[in-house]
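As the next step, I selected for study one protein, both as residues and as discrete backbone shape codes, as given directly below:
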Amino acid sequence: MEQIIPKFYSYHKELLATIHKILNVKSFALYGGAAADLIIDPNASVNDYDIAIENMSSETIGGVKKQLVEAGYEITAERSYCIYNDIPVSLIYANNQDWSFDIGFLDDVSIVGQFNLESLYWRFPELDCVDKFEAIQGVLDKDLHLIRSIENENPFMLVSRYIRLAAKYNIPISKDIIRSLIIRIERWKAPNKFHGIEAQAALVSSIFKSIFMSVDRVLFIDSLAKTGLLNSVFPEIEHLATNISLLSIENKNRIMNASSKNELIKKIESFLDGHEKVAFLQRLQLLKLRQWES
């Protein structure tokens, strides 16, 4: 049963109306971090919006792209991928100087989110907010958990989402969740490139993004190491991460003061030498598969 959030004020409705004017589609959903953050705090600073549109026709996708360009947005990337292993999604990225859109076209917008904190979404034209898995309460209680069976999802993708949500909302990483996913990763047989090397690239990217957005980057790196995740999927920095607490205050500050994900990567690289640095740089080659992030 849908749980409709009662505290959906005029500001939220006005934002949906503004997005509708830009996209000019009959219906859409706003989900992701912005949807939850703006319910908790309507004054939150948000400029990145995740949109789901329940129509995958080339006519609809082309129409939305045309609307975005006419509204002054640049289409920066397009790609196709799958959620829950086999549900196709077409995605376009667009931005102008003020806002960024990640727009997914799929058959059912209500299935967004593998974890409770990312399952909330706003609806247009209904002008309401659906919180079926109590995402808002989860944020307040720092409760992050799966809402769907892990048997139906790529474990690399699940870990990617989990650590980013944990970092964003400053939630302690669950060793039990991570270790159950590590077991799945070790047994994973990718049916194609998307679920194989591209999923690995997504996880490498998410590790750096999560470290960058975390409240205490040094502590977060230490937490990742203690779960065994880095030893399993990113052994090139596992030794550094395991001994992160031994770094000098100056070097810890270098990590904390990095102003971008790419600068953070450079800082971590500077702590490595010899074969560790060579292996680290080789692992980073995976990020070339994610050109839209650069």
